[in-house]
Every structure is written in C-alpha cells, then in structure tokens.
Amino acid sequence: MINQVTTLKMTEFVLGEDSRKDATKSLKSLLKHTTSTQDKQSIYVIINIKIPILRQKDYTPRIIPLTHKLDKITSKSILLITKDPSTPYRKTLTESKLTEGIFTNILSFTKLKSLMKNPKNSTKLFKENDIIVCDWRVYKFMPQVLGNKFYIKNKKVPYKIQFAPQDPTIPKKERSKDVRCDEKYVYAQLKSIIGNTSYIPTDNGDCVCVKIGYNQMEVSELMENLNCVIDYFVDEDKFGPIGGGVLRGVENLGNVFVKTSDSISLPVFIRSKEEKEEVDENDSDFDF
Prior knowledge:
Layout: H1 2-10, H2 17-32, E1 42-49, E2 62-64, E3 78-82, H3 87-95, E4 103-108, H4 109-115, H5 119-128, E5 131-135, H6 142-146, H7 148-151, E6 159-161, H8 183-195, E7 197-199, E8 207-214, H9 219-234, H10 236-239, E9 253-260, E10 266-269, H11 273-282
Helix pairs in contact: 1-9, 2-9
C-alpha cells in the first residue's frame, strides 16, 4: 500500500487531489466487486465531453500511450491486410524471426474483397481474429469491404499501419507504390497497438469510453493508466495535433467515471456539488 501511494504522488494527478482520492476509492470498489470471479474483466474510464471532438465521422483508432501495458502481441490473434500484391510483405514478415507466426492470416486487399462476398467467410474472419491491422494505402476502403459487423459499436475496427518509415526521397505521389517492409517497424506498431489503449473519435457523441486495464491489475497501476488517458485528452501541447489534446484543457471535460462492462459507473471527477451528491446516493449499494 505504501508503494502505491508513493507512486501516485510522484506523478501529479491531472484532475487534482480530490479526484485522485475519488478515483482511488472507486477503483478499489470495482476491484473488490470483481474478486468473486476468476474471469479477466476490463476496466474502463467514461469521459463526458463538453465540445465536439470531430466535425465528421472518423473510424481511425487513436493510440493512447499507457504506463502499464494491457496485453502482449502473443496474446492476440492478428489479421493483416495489405495492398496488392501481398507477396513482398508476406515474405519479409513470415521469414523474419521477429514477426514469424505473429499473424493468423495475411490477406491482400483483392483477396479480402473476394472472401467478404461470402457471409460465412466474414463471420469466420470476425470470430478468428482479435485485432485487424491494415495497410494505410487501402485503409479508407475498410468500412465498405468489412461491413457493419466489424464497425457497429466499434467492435473490431481495423488499426492503420505502415510497413516502413517514410522515406523523404520518395515523392509523395509515389509513396503508394513503395513495397519496402521493415519487420522491426511493423513489430513496434503492433506492440504499441496491443500494449496501449485506444479510442475512436466521434462527431456527435458527448462521451468517450476507453479501457484503462483489467481487474487483475493493482489500483496503483490502474490509477497511472487513468491519469495517462485524461492527460492525453486535455494536453494539446504534449499530444496534439494527431489524436490527442482534443479537449484543449480540463475546462472542456465533463464528469469522469470508471466502470466494468457490468458494473455501475463510479465517480472520478464530478463537475458540481449537486451532481456529486446525486452520484454518491446512486452508488450507495457499493461498499467503499
């Protein structure tokens, strides 16, 4: 317990000391109520937002760096979708010791389109793969090709990747023809995608839901990950302009809660005293 408190004091909690105490209290309560099951349960932060994040829909997940990583590459089944042809990428990634066996399947864009014409294939791909990563050059076609099954409620929206670092000597109009494949670069992206958390921006919602960890983690670890997520949304200087800092400060943050998929929402940050009293009353069935 001493180590937990020391760790949290070393890093300033973005929402202040009162919220740090509330968040610690809420997370302890969530963990207590998940100890009765051996199942691994995800813990989420629910962030109410006071300003629009986007002007139009965007299905591209934004990676949020976490101090305590969520998963390892070896714990997930991964489908890779490449531009045509897939041969140069398949050869490099399957022959390298670093990336050998990482992907459950590697499909070219044309092959994927052909498979998705059969609903049974679509269901098979959906069930057999935890994570889908897609070549940035064909990424924009994924909503149409994969269909609603993968996108409704953001169930298995693909992540965008590049196969090699950008080469400044290649003209912009020629980058789509680049067939370089750097297995270390690909591996680093996969490690980031799977180890960290992410969110998909919304153009009309008033809240976002982001995974911060699991019930098997320590309160101190969940607190640090929670702080990472809040910081990512409010600190424009550190995380802008791509994905982070979209709220441009704590003043555009509404109420913040933590919860599991089947629990009530417990408070981290409440805007007004009246709202806090209402939340405390509604949460009275939880033993703090």
